[in-house]
Amino acid sequence: MFFEGSEKKVEIITASTHGSLRLLGLDFWTQIVSLAKADIISVIDNQHCDAYLLSESSLFVWDNRIVMLTCGLSTLIDSLLALLEHIGVKNVAFVSYQRKNEYLAHLQASTFADDIARLRQYIPGKACRIGHLDSHHHFIFTSDTSLIAAQDKTSELLMYHISGPIAQYLTSTKQSVEQVCERLGLSTLFAGFNLDAHLFSPLGFSVNGIKDEQYFTIHITPQEQSSYVSVETNFDMADSDNPVAAQLLALLQPISWDSIGFNVPVIAANQPKNICLAHCTYPIEQNYQVYFGHFQQLGTEILNPELM
Amino acid sequence: MFFEGSEKKVEIITASTHGSLRLLGLDFWTQIVSLAKADIISVIDNQHCDAYLLSESSLFVWDNRIVMLTCGLSTLIDSLLALLEHIGVKNVAFVSYQRKNEYLAHLQASTFADDIARLRQYIPGKACRIGHLDSHHHFIFTSDTSLIAAQDKTSELLMYHISGPIAQYLTSTKQSVEQVCERLGLSTLFAGFNLDAHLFSPLGFSVNGIKDEQYFTIHITPQEQSSYVSVETNFDMADSDNPVAAQLLALLQPISWDSIGFNVPVIAANQPKNICLAHCTYPIEQNYQVYFGHFQQLGTEILNPELM
């Protein structure tokens, strides 16, 4: 009953010399997604964005931007290299590639170091690890490209070992998409978003949401001993009128969580009561900052030995 | 500049049907150690014990007991299986086999699950993981043998990311064995022990100590970003007259540490100021308890991104 929830993530911004990425069409994206060992399950769109729900997470395509996340044993680097081949590096304004610490890193097809060695054969860039290897950490590569979108804001909230009634519901046998959405309060947290949600068998829940140029995606791996929930958006999750991150933390009660912000400071929350064990501000360029914070519930957890 | 400090550990207790393990001789132990991809560097002995300092940690041999620890990319399971073949499972009263979480688990020749699948072909036993996969954790196998040494007491203190003047000295270019022993205060902490200490090139320090039937061993991997110090002993490290664990924690100022006790409760310490993030009591038999505690310095660490 193990599933590796933690994601690899790619973002590509194309230069004005390149046509709209949305015109590349379903067959093209199906092929790109298959290179990562994933499938397209469904798609929603609006005037700005095509949002694909994948068997392993999500793909968002705007006219000049792609965000793709894949979890499990997916090989996202293969999708990224194929995209760079197709788009042409000269038409690329910016690339970032991330991996989070995995629960079982030895099962992955490659390490982050392997991936960036291949990536650097296409495009030069800076790469680093933020966080200790024996704790939560985050690998990030960003291309050395002059055109950096300083307006680019993304927040990621990564929750580990969720608990409480919703965590229990998410491992129960009789779930429905509607009930999960309702219990998470998605229609309030993300009012006005068009949603595309899916329950996986035996367990797991994914949802994409789009509203104008805003997007969010939530992926839940509820498996006991290795539960993981990721939330990613270009929406302000710390907005005082609608503190999405704080509300999801209070609902899902993780033992520990990370907040990663691109040009958005790390999100603090009051519930569950917590301590920030470690944080970092990492300047990639003058106007482009990566923030990382690793939080842990205050109090001592009583561990249950897992028999093997 | 990476070295995997975290150890695998074997303990074997032989039944009274078996002769003294100390009579097996240097050639035998050299061969056993080589199966783990390690070498014997030196040996000290007393009336009760032969203590071998290894290129990857330590081996202690008493008449009816072996404790062997190996770090790096060593394959301790191969030594253990060869020992079981030689001794004969019918002459074995008890076996335990442990692994700690590794910094870079994917570099290891095998996983704990791989190892115990092989071990269980020789001897049945219980195995479990204590601690979450995304945090400090500890794997342990113990044989299903009727003869359990309830008097068997062992304390392990595992320190991660040491800091302060001694940590700095341990990464400096001009060290001496004498200076390391003096700065650690070994002659006071372990008064009356016969010591065998070694400095490794480019970095690293190991010491074995024996006094009557007591032993201790300290292994220091001081490399920045992946520093690790282990202390293991059958001596009472929480003794109020000589609180060895508390004194070593105060000297080495780790960011986080684990305390593992076999029939010895987890050791608490005041300095550095800390929080117990998680703990566990794991009963193997009625009179045999494993204690695990994972501690972290209070306060927020400011992380330095490590360029790749």
UniProtKB/TrEMBL annotation, chains A, B:
InterPro entries: AdoMetDC-like (IPR048283), S-AdoMet_deCO2ase_core (IPR016067), S-AdoMet_deCO2ase_CS (IPR018166). It holds the Pfam family SAM_decarbox. Gene3D superfamilies: S-adenosylmethionine decarboxylase. It comes from the Bacteria. Transmembrane segments: none annotated. This is S-adenosylmethionine decarboxylase SpeD. It comes from Shewanella inventionis. The gene is speD.
